[in-house]
Request: fold
Amino acid sequence: MLIGPYTGIDLGTLVLIAVLFVVAESISTHVVVDVKEAGISPSSAVALAAVVLVGPAGAAVVGFASCLAIRRQGLVKRAFNGAQFALAAYAAGHVYLLLGGTVGVPGQSDFPGIVLPYVAAVLTHTLLNSALIGVLMWCLGVARPAGSGPLRWRPLVALEIASVGYQMLGLAIAAIWGAVGIIAPLLVLLPLFIARWVFGQQTAEARAHEATLATLCQAVETKDYYTRGHCMRVAEGSAMIAAELGMPAERVQKIRYAGMLHDIGKLGVPTKVLQKNGKLTDDEYAAIKLHPTRGYEIVREISFLDEALDGIRHHHERLDGRGYPMGLVGMEIPESARIISVADVFDCLTSTRSYRKAWSVEDAIAELRRCAGSQFDPRMVEALVRAVSREGWQTPDIAEPPGGRYCATERPDPDCPDASAPDSPDGEKAAPVAESTSAGVVTGGQDR
Reply:
């Protein structure tokens, strides 16, 4: 900013743009990216308009005005933000001039020649901003919190693309500035502000839905010590599979909801049956087998669940037709149910239960592959394997059952495949995780 030069800059224009930048920066939209909060602001459009209207030095002054934004921020953070925007705008301004852009209100004769320099300035502004934030996070040691999985880059890219979209509007602001002056940003950005308000309402509604479903999950999991966190892990595993299959974000969310609520029918199963360590009687097992239908009946009137209802009702079906409640075969089983079935069993195998220790991720994957084609859809199994190998899997922290020992009694585990468990870490053979019922229907892949 000290380097300048400021010759030829209209002081009134500079002050007005700086004020507009501060206002726009004070009303940024908060969005959730990879379980962290980030912000996207229309101020970037004003900053790029400044590049055209007042040049590199003037744009740097406008960017530094960010430190005056009306927010609850400390002095150090304000200073960093101001310097960050100033540097990005200054560099973008020089790239704009280098490629033939002119400073001032663009006229009709300046188009389309001004477009290429302006696009280059937008890309420079975006890249430098991202680089400065990245270096800051790296220096602070918070680029990737300890214990978290790999960073999910797709949401971050989507956020940057949205920011570039805002910045492209800066050229429209500059183009009509000469005709309407300070009203120009209002004409261009007002529709975006309305869209922002609508987006905020939708986000609040989605968070309310999420909180409601999470409460229902907790109500189910309070009945069984060993399944605490199970519903949320199944939800995340189901979402990983759906995303790996390339499903649109809205459908991924519906399948995630189904994973959260797949066990809601357990509310109708007696607690003593869910917590029983010994072998289940036929009547007790029959009560457990009713929970998918009961779950469907509980939540079927919740309109926003849509496809999730099929996942809740049919996640215990098997490709070979030996599942329940309807004994569907192959592709008759809804896709959402085939996804949840795989995520459900995978979390069961990698979790500690009262009658066995948790399997390793590698053993669980091997078991899923062994049962693919008969119990599971092979496509869903391989999608989970790819997602887990890339993003990792957070296993629950239950180390051992209350009392410090495992029940040696064999019992059906409706969460797990019809196979004997692999050797436990201490070298002893663990109890089988499932067995056939008298009716010949294997209990594999079902929830307790």
